[in-house]
TrEMBL record:
This is RNA-directed DNA polymerase. Residues 35-206 form the Reverse transcriptase domain. It comes from Undibacterium umbellatum. The keyword Magnesium applies. GO terms for molecular function: RNA-directed DNA polymerase activity. Keywords: Magnesium, Metal-binding, Nucleotidyltransferase, RNA-directed DNA polymerase, Transferase. It comes from the Bacteria. It holds the Pfam family RVT_1.
Length: 271
């Protein structure tokens, strides 16, 4: 996209109203139960974010990405079954760490936008024109594309070392004969070189015969199973239903249905 007129046409906005679109009151900001700040676009800005997100959702993603339509976190884990070593890490504060400069660079270098078009798009997409918002429908795709050169380098590293790499949002997992502590150090260095950080607490290495925790599942040999913590939640929800009534009971039954459907995605479940 080279022209401002084309930008207005695509986003269905008038640039004369840009200051109004970027006003701080177009975000709802709160802290969730995990003590994370959520920045959610509202009103007109939410509509524009949805429009941009929908356009990005039409772009085909690399095969190693499992956080996309038609795939799930269970599918992600299934790529790593078998008695192979496994290593994993994740990007620390992925969306807030994806800066306006990174988003601008993505629009210019990967999507070949004119500089002034990229300036406006980066301002619209970023919270306070600083970083991707944590509560926007566009943040997942833009965070990936902004960091795609980094992910491509990690994937090439995995292929060259006869390992398999998958990505689920900000979770990076590699498995194979050469998934070693040295390899996870190399991966973390690649992330640092691209201006991002990994979480030490979420960086793990597993020997081939170990039970491995991957994106909300556990891998036991050639099977993907539900973690004990999720079995416990199913049992607790069933028990709570027995003592509930009215709207609360309906809410719990919906929750139980969702948990059981989630469990049914696994190869082996105890329900």
């Amino acid at each position: 996209m080279k022209g401002l007129g084309r930008l207005e046409e695509i986003l269905q906005i008038e640039l004369s109203m840009l200051d109004r679109l970027l006003a701080p009151e177009n975000y709802r900001v709160w802290t969730n139960e995990k003590n994370r700040e959520i920045q959610q676009p509202i009103k007109w800005l939410a509509q524009v974010h949805k429009r941009i997100g929908n356009l990005f959702s039409k772009i085909e993603l690399p095969d190693y990405v499992y956080s996309q339509k038609g795939r799930s976190y269970v599918d992600n884990a299934r790529q790593h079954i078998g008695e192979f070593p496994l290593i994993k890490t994740d990007i620390s504060k992925f969306y807030p760490s994806t800066t306006r400069q990174m988003v601008w660079s993505m629009f210019v270098h990967q999507f070949k936008c004119a500089n002034d078009v990229a300036d406006i798009l980066a301002d619209i997409c970023c919270f306070k024109q600083a970083h991707l918002p944590t509560g926007s429908s566009l943040s997942g795709r833009l965070a990936f594309f902004s960091a795609q050169p980094m992910f491509e380098k990690i994937n090439k590293n995995a292929i060259d070392s006869e390992n398999k790499m998958t990505l689920y949002v900000d979770d990076i997992t590699l498995s194979g004969p050469n998934a070693t502590k040295k390899k996870i150090s190399e991966i973390r260095q690649i992330v640092r070189e691209h201006g991002l950080k990994t979480k030490s607490s979420k960086t793990k290495t597993y020997p081939a015969e170990a039970v491995k925790s991957v994106t909300g599942t556990v891998i036991v040999g050639n099977e993907v199973k539900l973690p004990n913590s999720r079995h416990k939640k199913i049992a607790e929800t069933r028990q709570a239903i027995q003592h509930a009534s009215g709207p609360e009971k309906i809410k719990l039954m919906r929750s139980l249905k969702g948990r059981i459907q989630e469990a049914m995605q696994m190869d082996v479940v105890r329900i």
